[in-house]
Amino acid sequence: MTPGYLIEELKRRGVRVTPQRAIILEAIEEMPGHITAEDVFTAVQRVNRYINLATVYRTLDLLRGLDLIIETDMGASAVQFALRSHAAHHHAVCRQCGRSFEFPDELLAPVIDELATHYRFTADARHVVIFGWCDSCGETERG
């Protein structure tokens, strides 16, 4: 993604880009991977301390509504976001220790195909989180 992509995309869609919103959008683009509203707020505060957390949340909601970011609940206390341009991938998260790892989209492809073929259901599975137990915690759980 080129720098300024989000600003240009909002303008292209006829959405007003205020100076505060531009700062938030630039901060989001500079952050790799998954982010929280608090991550964005912290980055934005370094540039303009008058931008409040509510403005960050409103901007994230706008981006989600425009399908430019994906919202994911990975079981932590805060919802995480990823840019839509972030490649399709998924997470496995341990319910006990919180350890997580990414796994490729190809692992879910057979399930998505089966849903479409046998259940006539089109899955929106661009970013799936599966909860369970890692090896260490699973032994404790089974023990």
Write the layout of secondary structure elements.
Elements: H1 5-12, H2 19-30, H3 37-47, H4 53-65, E1 69-72, E2 80-83, E3 89-94, E4 100-104, H5 109-119, E5 129-132, H6 135-142
Parallel strand pairs: 3-5
Antiparallel strand pairs: 1-2, 3-4
Helix pairs in contact: 2-3, 3-4
Concise account of the structure shown:
The protein has helices at residues 5-12, 19-30, 37-47, 53-65, 109-119, 135-142; strands at residues 69-72, 80-83, 89-94, 100-104, 129-132. It is an alpha+beta fold and 143 residues long.
Protein model, in words:
The protein is an alpha+beta fold and 143 residues long. The protein has two domains: 5-83, Orthogonal Bundle (Arc Repressor Mutant, subunit A); 89-142, 2-Layer Sandwich (Dna Ligase, domain 1). Helices cover 44% and strands 16% of the residues. The chain is built from six helices and five strands, in the order ααααββββαβα. The protein has helices spanning 5-12, 19-30, 37-47, 53-65, 109-119, 135-142, and strands spanning 69-72, 80-83, 89-94, 100-104, 129-132. The strands form two sheets. Strands 4-3-5 form a three-stranded mixed beta sheet, with no helix packed on it. α2 (19-30) packs across α3 (37-47) and α3 (37-47) packs across α4 (53-65). The longest helix has 13 residues, at 53-65. It is globular and about 50 Å long. It starts with a helix and ends with a helix. The relative contact order is 0.12. The model has no long low-confidence stretch (mean pLDDT 87).
